[in-house]
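Researcher: Let's try something more involved. This one mixes different molecule types, so please make sure each is placed in the same coordinate frame as the others.
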Amino acid sequence: MSKIMITGATGGLGGASLDFLLKNQSSSELAALARDPGKLADYAAKGVTVRKGDYSDYNSLVKAFDGIEIVFLVSAVAFSDRATQEANALRAAKSAGVRHVIYTSIQQRPGSTLKISQVTDTNNHTEQALLDSGMQFTILRNSLYLDALPMLIGHKDFSSGLRLPLGSGRAALATRIDLAEGAAAVLAQPERHQNKIYTLGGSESFSFADIASVISEKTGSPITCENITLKAFVAEAVAAGVPQQFADFSGEWLNAIAVGEFAEVTGDLERLMGRTPSHYREFFQALV
Ligand SMILES: NC(=O)c1ccc[n+]([C@@H]2O[C@H](COP(=O)([O-])OP(=O)(O)OC[C@H]3O[C@@H](n4cnc5c(N)ncnc54)[C@H](OP(=O)(O)O)[C@@H]3O)[C@@H](O)[C@H]2O)c1
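Model: All components are placed in one shared frame. Result:
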């Protein structure tokens, strides 16, 4: 049986993917990577092989990938040297004899040249490096997490309405837990998904006006949805105490929605999960 290693297993996406896999797969076939293996003690107790490794430390990865056939490479975090870290992971996988890498990337509009700082350049570069590596690949181009949207908008409470660079864009976003379930479906039958690229998102697109309408319905008090420039959005966020770097980063994601970067509904996630992903309506109703 294949030995599959899950990276990012202490995090949201990798951890949930491992949990989904453990429902149907023997723990003896599974391994997990952590910078601090102590954080994965619960998985070790269930029989998952836990290895220490850091994307920034090439040698640690070569050692961690020893005897592993399939690596689920969860992309490195923003505001770190992602390009080097992901290059280390691919080189180490190749060197250790891994035959198939399943990599989490980001959804982009077909033909898009839009850049999201700290995100798209690295994802595109690593995708290409994986294609050129000679290893089998599966690329999971995840949408922006639906769960990340409220934080990017900067609202805990929507009563003051939405003031955003709306554009005319729509977005079909999936929750992180659904994206993890999709990844686990690939990991459960890796041979079926060799050399495939999937774009994973929600099964229905929505606009910010749709979100305002769901929240209005749920709370019983109409909330406004006002179009402002990206510059004004960032300035207002900073004035409200959001650090400049995060306000700029949030603005870039919202602008990506505004220009339709996540609008395409491919059905890939629905097919992998065998059910419809969580709907934005349910998500925002639960949130408020
Ligand atoms: N599509 C989206 O909306 C979206 C949103 C956020 C992030 N992402 C991307 O998707 C990835 C997974 O998301 P997530 O929500 O699961 O993030 P997360 O909860 O922050 O988890 C990140 C994982 O990466 C691990 N990690 C960080 N630096 C590492 C290093 N140098 N070497 C090895 N492991 C390292 C962390 O381990 P430690 O416990 O050691 O820190 C953690 O397990 C992120 O890393 C990011 O690239 C996508």
